[in-house]
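Worked example 2:
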Amino acid sequence: MYLCNMMKTAKEVILYMESQRDERQREILMGFFKTAPGDYGEGDEFLGLKVPQTREVVKAAKAVPLSEIPELLTSRWHEVRLCGFLLLVSRFEALATKRLAADESAIAGRDAIVQLYLQYAEQANNWDLVDLSAPKILGRWLLLPTHLGDKQQLIDGLARSSSLWRQRMSIVCTLATTQEGDPSWCLRYAEMHLRHSHDLMHKAVGWMLREVGKRCSMDLLRQFLEQHACEMPRTALRYAIEQMADDERKYWMSIPAR
């Protein structure tokens, strides 16, 4: 799909995306993202667009005003909400270049995007919406100047929320800080979520810990495991040790869970 015409309003974006509805793909996505009663994605509705299709829409919708993005974020359609979040990512990245890192206007712009993102965080109500946006907005924001106050306090608020998706934001956003060589954010929230009851959080915690070993220090990951492996959900532990050799993985998985 190639879009040559620019979209200037949220309404144009929604009408176009609705016109691309694919019933067969819609059924596949509704199963993949667990939308059945009782599942974590219960009630979510899909048009049947693949992520590359949505990204093409984002490229064509860069002229949509920031004030209209909430119309996308509150859509009934999963893909339209994803488009809204990816537009926020695009706007944030444009203000997060090295040249603009300390620019006062750029700081104000980034802070406004973070505030809007947090205001509509509940609309990121599935793991892909969180994972494709939190590291590139919240994670990057942690690495840059801000006027929003205590960064740790803000992310702690997400971590201590009763919302699964806000909680996932708090750990997944640390991908950005870990990639820049700072594992402290990941270790803080991995420990905070260590005994979480949901499998989606077990996977997120293990994934972020694996990145610490890969990007920062395998010995630091081992130190964390020495302290916590016995209390980690097995899914989190399996994800965390994926980059290790077979014999070492077997060693960590042999530790009895308390």
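The first helix runs from residue 10 to 19. The mean pLDDT is 96.
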